[in-house]
């Protein structure tokens, strides 16, 4: 008798458990179906609202240097070193002085500029007048574009003319012609307005005199170090940066995010 009662109880519990499991599975399936339908509806709405450009990569920033005519004027100090003639250090005759010059360039790409440069220095000389004139051609590499601060570095070669003259009792007028085999400069310009900037520069020129008044043919290495300020002019206005809110994302995506800020 007791065993039959126990069997009925177990059977009833089994039926109840099976019914509970079945109803739970049906509820989970319905919940999953609703979530899937909601996600599909959201995706369809996003696609309709954002259009075919959704997820497209932002195009590269416009090239603001290629084809531009770039002009610079500079003022600084020039310090010569090395030899004037074989075995004759220039420091015995020359000392530093005021130098001023100009650069004219054309942009080849967003970071590269072909430059023509020239400078004229009034050097110190004991009992004489010394002048240095140089002309060079080189390339400048700009680390960035379209921002307020523009750091750069350049390399080139050039021609140099160094002259000594005196009007005293022992008047003379000596001219040296040399080749700058390396003209390395670096600096940075700050642009308070798009077309005008001001900055600092430092330049090291090294070479050898090819023609001297004494007629010597030996190698006579020399160097000139210059540092100062320069004014930069870009007649074609630079572009403006895009707002930070859309940086790194396409416009349709940014607009869609703004409309639905609660979605992540």
UniProtKB/TrEMBL annotation:
Keyword Signal tagged: yes
Region forming the signal peptide: 1-29
Keywords carried by this UniProt record: Signal
Region feature Disordered, mapped onto this chain: 31-62, 239-264
Keyword Signal attributed: yes
Protein name: Secreted protein
């Amino acid at each position: 008798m007791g065993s039959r009662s126990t069997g009925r109880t177990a059977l009833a519990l089994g039926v109840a458990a099976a019914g509970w499991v079945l109803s739970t599975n049906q509820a989970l399936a319905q919940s999953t179906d609703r979530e899937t339908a909601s996600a599909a509806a959201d995706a369809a709405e996003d696609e309709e609202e954002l259009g075919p450009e959704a997820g497209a990569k932002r195009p590269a920033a416009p090239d603001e240097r290629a084809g531009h005519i770039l002009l610079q004027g500079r003022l600084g100090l020039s310090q010569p070193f090395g030899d004037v003639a074989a075995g004759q250090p220039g420091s015995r005759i020359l000392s530093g002085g005021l130098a001023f010059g100009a650069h004219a360039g054309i942009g080849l790409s967003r970071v590269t500029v072909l430059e023509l440069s020239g400078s004229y220095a009034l050097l110190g000389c004991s009992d004489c007048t010394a002048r240095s004139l140089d002309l060079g051609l080189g390339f400048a590499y700009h680390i960035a574009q379209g921002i307020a601060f523009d750091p750069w570095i350049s390399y080139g070669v050039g021609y140099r003319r160094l002259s000594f003259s005196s009007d005293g009792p022992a008047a003379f007028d000596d001219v040296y012609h040399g080749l700058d085999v390396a003209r390395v400069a670096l600096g940075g310009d700050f642009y308070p307005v798009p077309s005008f900037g001001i900055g600092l520069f430092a330049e090291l020129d090294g070479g050898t005199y090819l023609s001297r008044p004494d007629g010597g043919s030996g190698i006579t290495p020399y160097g000139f170090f210059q540092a100062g300020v320069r004014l930069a002019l870009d007649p074609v206005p630079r572009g403006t940066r895009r707002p930070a809110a859309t940086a790194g994302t396409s416009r349709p995506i940014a607009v869609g995010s703004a409309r639905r800020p609660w979605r992540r």
